[in-house]
Amino acid sequence: MNFNQNVSNAWRKNNSLVCVGLDPDPKRFPDQFAGKNDAIFAFNRAIIDATADLVCSFKPQIAHYAALGAEHQLLQTIQYIHQNHPDIPVILDSKRGDIGSTAEKYADEAFQRFEADAVTINPYLGFDSIEPFSRHQDKGVIVLCRTSNPSSASIQNLMVGEHKLYEKIAEMAVNEWNENSNISLVVGATNPKELGKIRAIIGDMMLLVPGIGAQGGDTQAAISNGQDEQGAGLMVNSSRGVLYASQGPDFADAARQVTEQMRDEINQYRKIV
Amino acid sequence: MNFNQNVSNAWRKNNSLVCVGLDPDPKRFPDQFAGKNDAIFAFNRAIIDATADLVCSFKPQIAHYAALGAEHQLLQTIQYIHQNHPDIPVILDSKRGDIGSTAEKYADEAFQRFEADAVTINPYLGFDSIEPFSRHQDKGVIVLCRTSNPSSASIQNLMVGEHKLYEKIAEMAVNEWNENSNISLVVGATNPKELGKIRAIIGDMMLLVPGIGAQGGDTQAAISNGQDEQGAGLMVNSSRGVLYASQGPDFADAARQVTEQMRDEINQYRKIV
Fold first, then answer.
1. What part of A 231-270 touches B (C-beta under 8 Å)?
2. How would you class B203 by CB atoms within 10 Å of its CB: exposed for 0-12, middle for 13-18, buried for 19 or more?
3. Which one from B95, B168, B193, B197 is the annotated catalytic residue?
4. Which of chain B's termini has less CB crowding within 10 Å, N or C?
5. Which residues of A are catalytic?
6. B15 is a domain residue
7. Cβ contact A138:A181 at 8 Å
C-alpha cells in the first residue's frame, strides 16, 4: 500500500478530509504539562487520541521540534501514531529542497529516521531535488505550489508566459514529475480561486490544503473549488485552531470538538460524502 | 559586528574566498574514525584545524547531520569553530522556507540552537518567509537564486516577462528584501555566465558560490564573472572535494593542500588580491 491509498482509506473510514497539524508550542500548553520532560510528546498524544477517528492524516511540522531540540519527541509522536492508529498516515512537514546528493540525506531524515509516510518539498531546485524522495514509491511527496502566506504571491504569481508560476509548477508536477504516482501539491485555502485553477490542471491529484483556521481561509470556497470529481482529493489542515482550541484542562475535548466541526463543515460542501 | 563584516575580515586576514563545506559522510571517513561515537565531530575538527587559516567561512550542511540524528555533533562542530577559530563565520546550510510563524522557529533552530552566524533560505514563499531570519541584523541570510544542480534551470530560468526567474529573485533581494543589509545570494559556479548577470544586478552584494570541485564548475569563469569591484564579494564553497581529498590517514593534510590550491587558483583570477 502506498501513501495515497492510505489517505483514501482514511478518508472513507473516518468520512473526513481533515488533517491535524502537530505544531507544538510549549508556551501555549495547558498548565498540566508545565515542567514535564516529555511535554511535547504527552501533549501530542492527547491530541492524537482525541482526534484520530476524525482525520485522514496527521502532519507534524518539523521546525517546532527542531527549534527546541525535540527530535526524539517527534519520533515518539510518529511512532505512537503508527502503533496506535495505524490507519492514519503521517506527513512530515519539512519543506526541504536541495541538490540531489543532499536531497537523499533529507529523504533519509524523513523516511528512515522519522518514519514518516510523506514529506513536503519545495520545488525551486527542480526535479532532481524531488526525485530522491519520489523514488520511494510507497511514500508521498507533497510539493509546494501555491502557499497560504501573504507574500507568497510575489513569487508564485509571477507571470511565466501566459500562466502564473504556481500553474507552471502544477503542470510540471502532473506532466513531468509524477512518474511514480506519488506526487501531490500544497495549495493554501487562503486562495480559493487558485485552488480551482490548480484542480483544473491536475485532475485527481491530491492536495494538502493549509490555511483554514488561524490563517483565515474560507472553508466553503476552498472545498467547492478544491475537491476532485469524487468529492475528495483534499487533506485540509488545521494546526493552531485545533491544538489551542482551549488552553485549559479540557484542551483535548476542545480539540476533538473543533476537529469534528471542521470535518462536518467540510462534508457539507463535498459533492459526494 | 555583523556577518558580512566578519566575512570581509576573514577574506582579508586569510587572503581567501574559500568556504569549506562540512558535509560529513561517515562511510567515506578514514578507518581511524570507525566505531567512534563522536566520529563526525572528530572528523570535522581535524578538517577545521587543517583549513581554518585558509578560508573565509565554514558551511555545515544540516541534512548530513539530521539523517544520522547527529544534531549534537553539529552543535559541537559550530561551537568548536567559534571557540578555536573565532574569526571564521559559520553558515548553517539548511535552505529553509516556510510561512512566517514557522520561519521564526527555523530562525531559532539556526541562530539560537545551533549558534550559526548565517543561514541559507529558499525564496519560493516570498519575503514574509525571509524576514524572520533577516530581522536578526547581525546574522547573514543567504537566499537561493541560481543553484548548481542540473534541473535547477527548469524552474529558475523560466522567463518572467523579459527576465528569468533567478534574475527577478536577485532584483527583489537587492531592491525589496535587503532592508537590514544582511541578505546575500546562492549562485552556482556551474553557471558562470549567469553569475555575471547576477553580479550586474546586485552591485556589491555577497554571493555564496557552490559547485566548484565535485560538481564540476570552472574556477576561472566563476571568479571572473562573479567577483565584485574589489575582487571579492564571493564565498566559493567546496565540500566533498576538500573533505574526501584523501580517505587515508593523511586526509587532513590532503584537505589542507586542496584548500590551499583552491585559494591560490581563485586568487589568480581576482582583480585585486
1. none
2. exposed
3. B95
4. N
5. 95
6. yes
7. no
Report yes or no for ipTM above 0.90. Answer: yes
Q: Mean of the pLDDT values across residues A168-196? A: 96
A-B interface: how many C-beta pairs under 8 angstroms?
Answer: 152
With beta carbons less than 8 A apart as the criterion, state whether B91 and B208 touch.
yes
Question: Where residue A156 sits, what CATH number does that domain have?
Answer: 3.20.20.70
- Cβ atoms of residues A222 and A209 within 8 Å: yes
* A208 neighbors A3 (Cβ within 8 angstroms): no
CA-wise closest residue to A113 among A152, A155, A79: A79
Helix (H) or strand (E) holding B84: helix B71-84
Interface of B with A in 14-73 (CB under 8 A): 23, 61, 63-64, 66-69, 71
CA distances to A106, B164, B255, B268 from B239, in Å:
17, 28, 10, 21
Evaluate whether A123 touches A147 at the Cβ level (below 8 Å).
Answer: no
Q: Which residue has the cell 510507497?
A: A138
Domain enclosing residue B22, as ranges: 3-268
Residue stretches of chain B with pLDDT short of 70: 214, 273
Q: Inter-chain contact B159–A160, Cβ cutoff 8 Å?
A: yes
- Reading the block at residue A166, the C-alpha cell is 504556481
Q: In what order do the strands lie in the sheet with B18-22?
A: B57-60, B18-22, B234-238, B207-209, B183-187, B140-146, B118-121, B91-96
DSSP track, B183-247: EEEEE-TT-HHHHHHHHHHHTT--EEE--BSTT-B-HHHHHHHH--TTS--EEEEESHHHHTS--
In a domain, A46, yes or no: yes
To the question of pTM greater than 0.90 for the whole model, the response is yes
Q: What is the pLDDT of residues B127-142, one digit of tens each?
A: 999 999 999 999 999 9
**A112/B contact by beta carbon, under 8 A:** yes
A-chain residue closest to B70, CA distance: A71
Q: What secondary structure letter does DSSP report for B150?
A: G
* Contact in structure between A50 and A256 (CB atoms under 8 Å): yes
Instruction: Flag whether B92 is in a domain.
Output: yes
Give me the number of domains chain A comprises: 1
List, for residues A159-171, the tens digit of each pLDDT value: 999 999 999 999 9
Q: Is B95 a catalytic residue?
A: yes
Distance from chain centroid for Cα B260: 18
Kindly state whether residue A273 falls inside one of the protein's structural domains: no
